[in-house]
Amino acid sequence: MAKNSKKDKEDLKLTIPKKKLFQVVGIVAAIAVIIVAAGAFTGYFTFADSLQRGPEGKAINFINNYLMQPGMEVELEDSTFQDGVHVITLSMQGQMFDVYVTEDERYLFTEAIDMDDELMLQQMLGPEIEINPEIVGREVETQQEIEEKTMDFINEYMLLEPGINIEHVETSIESGLYNILFMIEGESIEVFVNKNGNYMFLGPIDMDMDMDAMMPEQPEVTEPVEYDLGEEIMYNEEGQLIVHYFYTETCPYCNQQSEILDELEASYANEIEIVSYDLAERENSQIAQEMAAMHGVQAGGVPITFTGGEAFMGLTSLEVLEGQIVNCIETVC
Questions:
Q1: How open is the CA angle 205-208-212, to the nearest 5 degrees?
Q2: For residues 304 and 246, is the Cβ–Cβ distance under 8 A?
Q3: Would you identify the CATH topology of the domain 215-331?
Q4: Helix (H, G, I), strand (E, B), or coil: what is residue 125?
Q5: Residue 313: which H helix or E strand, with range?
Q6: What are the Cα distances from residue 251, in Å, to 84, 135, 205?
Q7: Apex CA 98: angle with CA 39 and CA 195, to 5°?
Q8: CA distances from 229 to 31, 210, 217, 303 (A)
Q9: Which of 178, 215, 237, 298 has the maximum number of C-beta atoms within 10 A of its C-beta?
Q10: How many beta carbons lie within 10 A of that of residue 170, not counting itself?
């Protein structure tokens, strides 16, 4: 069995390092709504064909087919084209939120920051933070001015650690937006900015990518096969609770799940062991299928986390996983 401790596994790169940048949930709540914050399920890849056309239909089908829990769907409420992107208002279970699609219908964004909205920024940062008028609301025209404004905004309001600044690497035009690449302590940060220089878009999702290719190749099995998962399923020899984590390098939610597991590992270093499985390896894919069967679920996407006899399908919050871990530590699952 391919078994790799998270301590030894190479860190997954993040588009924006969580430990260095604040989360912009206060500005755009779409990521929390689309990825179903209710329960343990918050982001899970299923693999179906997108049928409709046009920016609204393409976004809705992509979200419903690839980002939603089976049986749950988003619906179109409104759509406008402004500031170089399609602003599409969706609803799910009575909650409304916006997503953003590039003019060529390639990229989907679930987060956007209005770099000119002083009031919203103040509400998010709190009254103790002084808003710099030389950054927020700064009028820009040229590409260089937009690069400088974006870099100043990130350095001033998005970096948590004092004394750390991003550096501009390069800028290209992609899908009608500026694709600006920055570096911070050896890690790359990619953001998209519209040509007016007022909106920054985070977390690009390429709706033209081959989703089927993201699935690891499944072995051909002509008869039932049982895989030896060993005795260390729930607890290891030291009595630590084992958290089994399945991921792929191309899964956008696995980066976030990896960070959550890192936090849990730091908080419960003596109580848990996190074992990670890259589904690019065929043996790990077989293990995922067998472990899913043991838990009464289907392993159809990533991330998946198994611990304490429970299966957590998709991006699962720290609070949910921590609750399961604490319960198993206190009562023995």
A1: 95
A2: yes
A3: Glutaredoxin (3.40.30)
A4: helix
A5: strand 310-313
A6: 27, 34, 11
A7: 135
A8: 35, 32, 20, 19
A9: 178
A10: 9
pLDDT tens-digit map of 18-52: 333 333 333 333 333 333 333 233 344 333 333 35
Query: If DSSP codes are grouped into helix, strand and coil, which group holds residue 46?
Result: coil
Q: Residue 16 has which token pair?
A: 């924006």
- Write the single-letter amino acid at 24: V
Q: Which tokens is 129 given?
A: 């933070």
Please check whether residue 196 is in contact with residue 83, taking contact to mean a CB–CB distance below 8 angstroms: yes
Higher pLDDT, 67 or 31: 67
CA gap 152, 166 in Å, rounded = 9
CA 158 remoteness from chain centre: 18
Reported residue count of the chain is 333
**Cβ contact 120:101 at 8 Å:** no
Q: Read off the amino acid at residue 84.
A: G
What is the reported pTM?
A: 0.55
Structure-token pair, residue 3: 């078994």
- The answer to whether the beta carbons of residues 89 and 98 sit under 8 Å apart is yes
| Residues forming CATH 3.40.30.10 domain(s) in the chain | 215-331
